Amino acid sequence: MFETLSDRLTSVFSSLRSKGRLSDADIDATCREIRIALLEADVALPVVKDFVARVKERARGAEVSQALNPAQQVVKIVNDELIEVLGGETRRLRHAKTPPTVIMLAGLQGSGKTTLAGKLAKWLREQGHAPLLVACDLQRPNAVQQLSVMAERAEVAVFAPEPGNGVGDPVAVARESVEQARRRQHDVVIVDTAGRLGIDQELMKQAADIRDAISPDEVLFVVDAMIGQDAVSTAQAFMEGVGFDGVVLTKLDGDARGGAALSVRHVTGRPIMFASTGEKLEDFDAFHPDRMAGRILDMGDILTLIEQAQKTFDEQEAAKMAGKLASGDGFTLDDFLEQMMMVRRMGPIKNLLGMMPGMGQMREQLNQVDDRDLDRIAAIIRSMTPGERQEPKIINGSRRARIAKGSGVTVTEVNNLVVRFFEAQKMMKRMTQGLGIPGMPGRGKSQKAQKAKKGRRVSGDPRKAALGKAGSGTADTPSLPKGAGALGNLGTGQLPPGPELPPGFDPSKFKLPGQK
Q1: What is the pTM (predicted TM-score) of this model?
Q2: Where would I find the SRP54-type proteins GTP-binding domain in this sequence (predicted)?
């Protein structure tokens, strides 16, 4: 969503890094580029003026003129102001002192209210709540049925006494739903209301009547982040006609410029509380202004990445897997497949890599990452027998042909996977033995013993020998083609150029289980 804005701001700051001091002309030129970047991203003009004025005022102050690195200080100022524009601190849901907590969703038709109701219900259920979805959109065809399907997928209850399609009183349904929630001991009620293609008096009156009937603890305005400046005018109309406490952005995974997301909070004064980033029920989370600002400025979003990993990986399984990694030989293809499936559950690989700092400069390479490569690897491993997964060394020519036929790939792709798996095993063993890794305990052979060893050992495996001739390594420790990796494009044996480690990354700070 913010790729264009991120690219422009990153290029602006890269030109500042070579300057030891910033003159007024440098600050004016930088602010001019920031203004153009924001306007091109479809940010509202009043928001742009206020933002640039605050950045310019702070950039000319003592915090930049006296800084050891003025360019970094300007980046910090822009980051601080972006966080402020996006809402400052993360806004949490207000829960009622006496359950149930009533949440009302409002917005135009097509903004994604019904889908978002299911996402919010699932998100609340995972936090230990017992939400009840209420179908008050009785105008749009099949809206009630859609909400019922969403409730089933989210594994939550739904209250839909009216068939909809123009039949029923939404105000009466909303009022009755609160009593129903008390009887069934639901602590959260999520009311899905009707929308229109545009702002009209009937829409505003119905939304206001539902609000007055249920006295919601939170009124959330759902806005499509892809509709541009119309999002700002629509938000203002709902603010005057119904009023709302927070904003929910949908379709943040789209390719629109996304400046409306930066404008809505500034114009309405209401915080952005949630963001929807995909079609799946899992593609939803609380909105963190500081993390979004970091993504826009290509600083990464490590906290969100860690949270997703914590949701996906079980601590006991992770500790068990760490022990196998430490042993090297104990790591099998079954373990490899299990780890790969865990990574897949975290989301698309492209999105995960995009949360790393500096990945905005490698967007073309990230766009070439295809999750279907992982599916082909999984198909190859699942076509093996349990014995072959435990001991890949027994996989001979006839076995490779059978595996290739069963998984729908070529024999070459099977060969590549097996060879790369062996190399990954060796690499893990070297890391745990501390060979060549700064800060790691040296449990392997001494350096003198390694130097005393002469000659070149030739492997009897023709696959390894071929790889050894192609690369710069030995036949026993072949180097893969440039850009190749353990999870590559199996059809070609190549991967797009991988990301470099961020500056300051020190592998010695990582400790394995049992290492002090």
Answers
A1: 0.61
A2: 271-284
